[in-house]
Amino acid sequence: xxxxxxxxxxxxxxxxxxxxxxxxxxxxxxxxxxxxxxxxxxxxxxxxxxxxxxxxxxxxxxxxxxxxxxxxxxxxxxxxxxxxxxxxxxxxxxxxxxxxxxxxxxxxxxxxxxxxxxxxxxxxxxxxxxxxxxxxxxxxxxxxxxxxxxxxxxxxxxxxxxxxxxxxxxxxxxxxxxxxxxxxxxxxxxxxxxxxxxxxxxxxxxxxxxxxxxxxxxxxxxxxxxxxxxxxxxxxxxxxxxxxxxxxxxxxxxxxxxxxxxxxxxxxxxxxxxxxxxxxxxxxxxxxxxxxxxxxxxxxxxxxxxxxxxxxxxxxxxxxxxxxxxxxxxxxxxxxxxxxxxxxxxxxxxxxxxxxxxxxxxxxxxxxxxxxxxxxxxxxxxxxxxxxxxxxxxxxxxxxxxxxxxxxxxxxxxxxxxxxxxxxxxxxxxxxxxxxxxxxxxxxxxxxxxxxxxxxxxxxxxxxxxxxxxxxxxxxxxxxxxxxxxxxxxxxxxxxxxxxxxxxxxxxxxxxxxxxxxxxxxxxxxxxxxxxxxxxxxxxxxxxxxxxxxxxxxxxxxxxxxxxxxxxxxxxxxxxxxxxxxxxxxxxxxxxxxxxxxxxxxxxxxxxxxxxxxxxxxxx
Length: 620
Description:
The protein is an alpha+beta fold. The protein is built from 26 helices and 17 strands. The model has no long low-confidence stretch (mean pLDDT 95).
């Protein structure tokens, strides 16, 4: 039974208390749908409401929240992602991570818009959900298993048609950037898998058989036909994603001179042009795979072949970020080594972006003699040493030697190493940076500095407007307005859970899709305001945790060291000028970077303003 007046939604939230091993079902408040839509927005709202300031992210008091979008579960393409929201053990900010695949559709069809996990089990467990039946079962026999084996084994004990989200040894060992794996989907960033591991929750298994109710079935069918028609009319663009997935970004950024190489020491990596560019990578792809109800087969299964030290490896993915993190960032141009690193990270359950970053960081420390082979237990962390790079992943996951330090993330590791190593730690608010050097696209730098989960490209992706689009990437002028719009749009997209690779099609039809499926009647302007509301709520969460303008910064290297070669040569990020403009456009206090009372009230967040005022965080 739907417990909200809006169709499309399941109308129910499942709450699981792992301490008492009990669960309950709660109605989805109508306000959640009306003001926060779904996905990222509802996850942020729950975390704001239920988690007071100062909670240790790895304590039982933290929450791990999985949320879906209103369109998930029906026949609309490009809405298959699930959002995991929590307080990050890596950054102490609100974090949310996204995974595509089939898990979201299964959970919606089981009758839920989300799950809230709280408490901590006294022993490893997994949660088995089949429609209205929920069981909390022993997972001692799964503890220590890889994510691949876990998914296979747990299906044997439940249902072969079920979908599974699980952690590997990375989450069990509380590596601060552990991921959650679901099929070919990865909740990668911010340590969501670490929080899952801290709760002794090994896996979530879901099987659903219910069809979502639609407000206007015939109208919805017509809206979906329009979406598919848009894919057909833009076939060339769609085919690019189908063929190359995200890997084509290599071909965009390396020639532009802002492909972070050797831990952001350079922006070009000529050695990669015959090995890591998309046309070379494509040769290793054996199968193209799509998420649920999607015509864009952007996921890839690649094989390393039968020769060389990394032969015989099948890798599910090789997304752009992974090619970069274990390629240029570590001075490596061997695609097979990238595939080996990717597979190991997925099987052990750690984020490829952060893992590549901490290894690239260690390689620079090795280059600068801050650490030596004595610290690495004989591993020679020279740039491009692929065997050492791959070996270090296991050391990190199992916290062996140097790996135990790197498992804390680059910010904490730099505090431990000292001796100037802080300058080589490429992060914002503790979150390791992704594969875009903002010295070649200033807007991305402003986004990194102000994104709510730290150094995040997904919050304000600017490559297609700054690098391949009409906006000058090397100017501060107008970037406040640009990032304001892109960040709000991303918050909305992630709340509707539109896939990044298909949202350029689906987004145009979003008001009609929402009205015919749910009954929610929004204009495009209403939806844009919703994105702004969600972004401000997340900012308020971080403010309540003690973050302010002082934290809206970038690594010194990006502000002080110009790139020395390539098209982006001689540039550093002009951050302060962009910040002034950004705070003005956002309507935030210029001195503190905190949303003002009037701005929060304008967005329907008066209660949030009152709470910030009550804890002394609201600007006068």
